Amino acid sequence: MLFNSINFVLFLPFVFILYWFIAKGNLRLQNVILLVSSYFFYACWDWRFLFLLVFSTLLDYYTGIKMCDAKTEKAKKFWFWLSISVNLGFLGVFKYYNFFIESFSEILSGVGLKFDVWTLKIILPVGISFYTFHGLSYVIDIYKNRIKAEKNFIDYSLFVSFFPLLVAGPIERATHLLPQIQKKRTFDYANAVDGLRQILWGLFKKIVIADQCAEYANQIFNGSEAYSGSDHVLGAIFFTFQIYGDFSGYSDIALGTARLFGIELLRNFAFPYFSRDIAEFWRRWHISLSTWFRDYLYIPLGGSKGSMLMKVRNVLIIFIVSGLWHGANWTFVVWGLLNALYIMPSIVLNSNRNNLEIVAKGKYLPSLKDVFAIAITFGLTVFAWIFFRAESLSRAIQYISQIFSKSLFSVPTVRPSYLFVLLLIFILIEWFGREREYAIARLGLKWNRGFRYAMYYAIIIAVFWFGGKESQFIYFQF
Amino acid sequence: MKKFIFKTLLFTVPFLALYIITSLFYSTKETPDLLRLGYIPNIYQDYRKAFDFSKTKKYELLSKSKHRKFKILTIGDSFSEQGAIGYKNELANDFTVLHVNRFISNNQIQTLMNLVNGDFFDTYKIKYVVLQNVERFIIDNSENIDSNSKLTIKDIDTLVANSKPKKEVFKYDFFSSATLKFPLSSTLFFFKENYLSNKQVYNVQLNSKSLFSNNSDKLLFFYQDFTQTNKNNLVENSEKLNEILNTISGKLKQKNIKLIVLPSPDKYDMYYDYIVDKKSFTKPLFFENFKKLKKDYSYIDSKKILSEKLKTQKDIYFFDDTHWSPIASKLIANEIKNVIKKAP
User: Fold this and answer.
1) What are the φ/ψ torsions at residue B324 (nearest 5 degrees)?
2) CB-hemisphere CA count at 13 Å for A118?
3) B134–chain A nearest CA distance, Å
């Protein structure tokens, strides 16, 4: 059930009515309604994988309790590693088995050894990377004595599979979401309206920006030979906006939807394309994943403590794993490596926390220095996205070589002027709303009602007007 | 809560209402294509029940062909892609028919030239080639023809191997411009005459209600039927086309194959005489110009055949679609059969 489908448009109010009118403040019933709805939502994708989701939930729930009840450190360790290995085992089989087996075979054949490849036809269960990470963070937190095991299975299951975040995040933490699930929730008008506004902006990003950019990005990425170097640059820029609109749009819809039920999810995006360096970009892009890796991988590895060599190693590990998390393809590994290379100078020079505040805070316009820094960071990001988007490394290299050809300075043949106008409007709205949680959070709140409503109608009409091209969200494949 | 629900409804109900209207009356099926493209309401929902779509396909597709010997090779555009109700299936009742898939022949004139220049006709034993082309694109397709380019069996095999069978899905999403455009465009259908709907489909008044079995006196036709008229009316363009067809025919004759050329009239051309207000519509002259030219191939004057039948027979073309109906397919197939029977 896609967020941008009629099914969801009907599903959401139905759950909303059950939640607020039937459950009427009964916390238990509210949680049961949300859990059943979440399972139904997931079953709409593929009911067979519901068993996997339930099994994964049961496993972490049970091992969590067992860890808490363990009398010895050894027993605790046993349950901990059981959960970790089963979780990663599922992820490994469903997501990486074929990739590793094929890569292994290629390495062997490279040294002249023959190895018969046994690949499997595996369908990737939607959301597996996300709900597995929910479970992992939960058992790690219990193991590290940060939290106690959750005894209420309904509450725990809802934490893992709350439908707005089930298929593409944000990746939640038990410390953040479970207390909200267990706290009495009453309807808050302002929060619900804000949720709807955020859903609207998410739809705009997805349908008006991402799907329009997708059309031209796909055209150029799939057309290769037929396009000039300047077209290839445009193609990469279109994809840059596509992936941002697609994923941050999804996150906005997820956060807005959760707000309708009185639940605040973790913020996932904070205007990453206005970053002045790569470190800042990674503090603003897919925040829930970056912080997950920071807390559960980077810091346990030693983080930025220890020798310079250790720091460099840790950064490399975290970015390669981050790349691999996105998919079983060398293109993602290279994308991760490239970002690691980008960020390395700031790690070495200890300047990775130079830009913690949003750019030009309290000002209308950025300084020239900021403009330059944003442009450089954006350019590096665009370049890295080529690897993310390409089907293979050779295709990515071919794409880049086509950029750096004689035709780089020619006039592009793909010139959708309407899209340039849309992107300009989009960038302006994002710029002026950059100090809020999402761009239109405060837009028009001081205007008279007529103008404000006209603006909302304009956004809704734009969503419909540009709708119907692409529909799938990119991050569903991860 | 009441305030929240009221405000939410304020922003959602208008669009849900438009969606319901669109869902009820918008045709998202591949055919009728004119209703789909023009956002015209499907008010004659029983119209298509009069046609028999249940026939079996008897022809073979080149991409899946098991045999190498056929009486007829057909190559064309969507008028040749009508499956079981198309003229090629009618031909397949009496002869073995091989059809060249659309993904192999984007421009059927150029593709046929390529096939003749390659080794195709050495591998496939063919007696007759039916080259079909819709009127609106026939001149376009004859421009910039490369008489020397080739398409070999190996090239075709590669094309087939790389082709991903892409079934175009004609679906209607909630968040789509159709939700806004369809209700507006379909309202015009009831209140406006002689206009272009959704920049795609003309809806013009006819002087007769006996041309379609739904008794409508409206003619729907694709906008390019009209926009291509001036270009197609130029005699020199027809002459150039005829020259190319003669060249292809000559090359085929060397291989003992006979070329049969079948232009499919635009719906606009077919029904032009019945349009009430012709002042803003140019008369199509392509068939008139083309029939006068000296031809080294067999020519099916489909407009003449179908126009005569139009006086007594309804639904020569579908009311709601740009293509001819099974009735016309049969008439055309019979004419091709006659040509083959008369051939020495």
Assistant:
1) -70, 160
2) 1
3) 28
d(CA B282, CA B136): 14
H-helix segments, A70-186? 73-91, 97-110, 128-143, 153-161, 163-166, 174-182
CA distances from A18 to A23, A32, A124, A420 (A): 6, 11, 32, 43
Asked whether the beta carbons of residue A193 and residue B4 sit closer than 8 angstroms, the reply is yes
Q: Where are the alpha helices (DSSP H) in A304-367?
A: 308-326, 330-348
Interface contact flag, A460 B175, Cβ < 8 Å: no
Q: Residue A134 phi/psi, 5° resolution?
A: -60, -50
A6 close contact with B: CB closer than 8 A: yes
What tens-digit pLDDT sequence spans chain A (478 residues)? 888 888 999 999 999 999 999 998 899 999 999 999 999 999 998 888 899 999 999 999 999 999 999 999 999 999 999 999 999 998 888 877 777 777 767 777 776 766 666 655 667 788 888 999 999 999 999 999 999 999 999 999 999 999 999 988 799 999 999 999 999 999 999 999 999 999 999 999 999 999 999 999 999 998 767 789 999 999 999 999 999 999 999 999 999 999 999 999 999 999 999 999 999 999 999 999 999 999 999 999 988 788 888 989 999 999 999 999 898 889 999 999 999 999 999 988 888 888 889 999 989 999 999 999 999 999 999 999 999 999 899 999 999 999 998 889 888 888 899 999 999 999 999 999 999 999 999 998 889 999 999 999 999 999 999 988 656 666 665 5
Q: Taking CB atoms and an 8 Å cutoff, what residues of chain B touch A203? A: 175
Say if CB A337 and CB A319 are below 8 A apart. Answer: yes
Q: How far apart are the first and last CA of chain B?
A: 85
How many angstroms separate the CA atoms of A467 and B19, rounded?
A: 13
- Asked whether the beta carbons of B273 and B219 are under 8 A apart, the reply is no
Q: By three-state DSSP, how is residue B128 classified?
A: strand
For residue B85, count CB atoms less than 10 angstroms from its CB and return exposed for 0-12, middle for 13-18, buried for 19 or more. Answer: buried
Is residue A328 within 8 A of residue A364, CB to CB? The reply is: no
**Nearest residue of chain A to residue B171 (CA atoms):** A468
CA distances for A370 relative to A181, A359, B240, angstroms: 41, 7, 62
> Do B207 and B273 touch, CB atoms closer than 8 A?
no
Pick B180's closest partner by Cβ from A196, A453, A464: A464
A326 is an active site residue: yes
Shortest distance, CA A160 to any CA of chain B (angstroms):
29
Residues of A in contact with B175 (CB under 8 A): 4-5, 203, 207, 463-464, 467-468
